Amino acid sequence: MESLMLRVQGEVRSPRAFHFAELASLPEQIADIGTLIPGRQGGGVWLRAVLDAMELNERATYLTLHATDGQYSASVPLEAVRDYAVVLYRLGEEPLPAGQGGPLRFLITNVDACGIGEVDTCANVKFLSVIELTDGPGADTRRIPPR
User: Fold this and answer.
1) Is the dihedral of CA 31, 33, 39, 41 positive or negative?
2) Strands across the sheet containing 5-10
3) pLDDT band at 87, cuts 50/70/90?
4) Residues 25-66 pLDDT 10s
5) Which of 5, 86, 109, 121 has the greatest number of beta carbons closer than 10 A?
6) What are the DSSP E strand ranges found in 11-146?
7) Which fold has domain 5-134?
């Protein structure tokens, strides 16, 4: 399980890596994501608990979510998703399997509540490896319609 790792970097006082046990020790655990998003499986932790374990710089206004392949990323406003996003990391007591987007997956539980065009279901990043906090939008490979 030690190979499971979420790096949080960018506009933070000290970048940090979270392993399985560290994610599991955070408050605000979700035992079954299916209670919030019917049809989904897995357990995780609310994004706000991950961020509360960090010291964010005042300039941190966006999250840029990077997949392990280095090819896919999504950048979304921090305040729009802070209270609506979950980092899934387990299925039972084991890491989330790749067949479900693991070992880490970023899910927004209520896209409509975010209320802005930059937040859509394509920001639900499978195979998540890095959350980068940025001052303004970061790298984003999604196809977002022009405004």
Assistant:
1) negative
2) 16-19, 5-10, 128-134, 62-67, 73-77
3) very high
4) 999 999 999 998 888 899 999 999 999 999 999 999 999 999
5) 86
6) 16-19, 29-30, 43-46, 62-67, 73-77, 85-91, 94-95, 105-108, 128-134
7) Sulfite Oxidase; Chain A, domain 2 (3.90.420)
Element (H, E) at 81: helix 78-81
**Sign of CA pseudo-dihedral 83, 48, 73, 9:** positive
What phi and psi, each to the nearest 5 degrees, are found at residue 135? -95, 90
Whether omega for the bond prior to residue 103 falls within 30 degrees of 0, making it cis, is: yes
For residue 24, the model assigns a pLDDT of 96
Confirm if 76 and 118 have CB atoms less than 8 A apart.
Answer: yes
If 0-12 CB within 10 Å is exposed, 13-18 middle and 19+ buried, where does residue 69 land? exposed
Kindly give the pairing relationship between strand 5-10 and strand 128-134: parallel
Identify which of 12, 142, 18 has the alpha carbon closest to the alpha carbon of residue 90: 18
